[in-house]
């Protein structure tokens, strides 16, 4: 069994690769994660800060 790790994507990225990395990790389409991120940004929740924190703590794909 291989260990699945969370990385920011180098191949499918828009802004930092966070959404694409999360999509790869959870086996979802990156567009869905990006749409959720945009909704969180626009609704005034802490989505912006969560994205920035994830951008800092999730390593770039080797």
Mind explaining what this structure looks like?
This protein is mainly α and 62 residues long. The protein has a domain at 18-57. The protein is 53% helix and 0% strand. Helix 1 (18-26) packs across helix 2. The longest helix has 13 residues, at 30-42.
Key phrases:
62 residues; globular; 3 helices; mainly alpha
pLDDT < 50 runs, ≥5 residues: none
For the report, how would you describe the main beta sheet?
A: none
Measured between the Cα atoms of the first and last residue, the distance is 20 Å
What structural class do helix, strand and pairing data support?
mainly alpha
Subunit arrangement of the protein: single chain
Shape, principal axes of CA atoms: globular
Strand content: under 5%
Q: Can you write the helix and strand succession as a string?
A: HHH
